[in-house]
Amino acid sequence: MRIPIPEIAASMTAAAGEDVAALARQYGPTVFRAAWRVLGARAASEDVQQQVFLRLIESPPAGVASWPAYLTTMATRLAIDYLRRQRRLRLLAPLWKADEPDDSPAEDAERAEAARFLRAALARLNTRDASCFVMRHLHGLTPAAIGAALGLSENHVSVSVHRARKALEAMQAKEQSR
Amino acid sequence: MNSLDRTLELVGGREPDAVLVGNAQRELEAVVAAKLAAQPARRPARAARGWLAAAASAAVAAVAILWLPLGTTPAFADVQKHFRDFKTLRFAVEQRMNGKSLMTARVSVLRDGSVRAEVGEDVVVIVNPAEQRVLSLVKSARLAVVAPFDETKVKEDDALEWLDDIRVFQGAATALPDTRIIDGQKAHGWELTINGGKVVLWANDEGLPLQMKLDHGVAIDMDFRFEFDIAMPADLFSTRIPEGYSQGEAED
To answer: What is the pLDDT of residues A79-119, one digit of tens each?
Structure first.
């Protein structure tokens, strides 16, 4: 039986929508966890998680080889962008306190301070270096997997991670000397 | 164990509570369902029109191609080479939020890292590594602020980060099926994903970049128009305070 062209087109459109809903069901928790490891705050992580999937609806990517890697990368990038925006807001309004991390009151002081330092310092890094560092040390991905997700050579990923580490160590030393 | 390793030990490996993940997931599925439901009901019709239009375009293209001289399609590596090897680069950039223009800037870059950015109509910022100075001018107030060049501060909020990202990109650049005419030149397009953001880049037959769109999916996108290796007078990058300007205090 021949299917009229408009019906084929309609079914293709519906399939694209269904795909995003299915991706959200399957990888929503992965994306939330990726954002939370960077942000440590529920509301901000939910924002990032929703942005990732809304963007898929508005602007579907072509030729994605690995959805978990693609979505984790996007969540990481958006979470780092979020940290950078927060940093700018704090510079403008030092008393700004919205969206405190989940770990601040209940966690022990050392862990809370470590998390605060790491988020503030990541916001000051070059986005690519910060993404490589987070994907390596917070998400536990291999340099090869990070390279595939970010479109970089494995060697370049290692250089980025190393550069981020050196910058973070320098920031930490400076902070501890105060 | 150094301090950073201790920090990573404390922060890394922590996962959100299952209740948080579950609540976020329910919220996400509702938001996605609402967004999909809000897609206009006319979409199938639009898609159908698109389908028919595409078929018509393909037929026209099939005929038209017989009359066109065969052109070469450059490789994406040719495009990257221009971003790596330029002597001068000038680009106009427009930043938009939800389609509304937020900011326009005209930026000139030399190979040695000197940058002149004209932001809107009123502000000019010149970074000159050789002179080790950064000059900011506010035209309406005839005000000039000179600050020492601090590489770490310049890099910290690097507006040219995208340039480095494209230079080192080694992933898959998907060639777009259609060509466009940009500034009178036939342009080939590529789509690539860098740091989770979508980049669409157009270049001519020789791989010379003409136009680029950055979309990081947060309602803000940026459009670029490029000019490579055009002559630029050296005083364009001078950090000497122009006549008629008073000098203001640099903030830390």
So the answer is: 998 888 887 766 654 444 445 566 555 557 888 888 889 99
Q: Which two tokens stand for residue A57?
A: 């609806």
Query: pLDDT digits over B119-144, tens only?
Result: 888 888 898 888 888 898 888 888 99
Q: Contact A9/B216, CB-based, under 8 Å?
A: no
Burial of B189 (0-12, 13-18, 19+ CB in 10 A): buried
Burial class (CB in 10 A: 0-12, 13-18, 19+), B19: exposed
The shortest C-alpha distance from A143 to chain B (Å) reads 14
Question: B140 φ, ψ to 5°?
Answer: -60, -35
Residues B196, A74: C-beta atoms closer than 8 Å: yes
Distance CA(B186)–CA(B207), nearest Å, equals 11
Q: Report pLDDT for B186.
A: 84
- Distances in Å between the Cα of B215 and the Cα atoms of B32, B98, B149, B182, B194 are 20, 11, 30, 20, 10
Taking CB atoms and an 8 Å limit, are B12 and A138 in contact across chains? yes
Of A139, A141, A177, A143, whose CA–CA distance to A162 is shortest? Answer: A143
Residue of A170, A83, A85 lying closest to A119 (CA atoms): A83
Q: Going by C-beta distance under 8 Å and a sequence separation of 6 or more, which residues neighbour residue B118?
A: B105, B106, B107, B124
Q: How many CB atoms are closer than 10 A to CB B79?
A: 24
The length of chain A, given as a count of residues? 178
State which H helix or E strand residue A75 sits in: helix A67-92
Mean pLDDT of chain A: 79
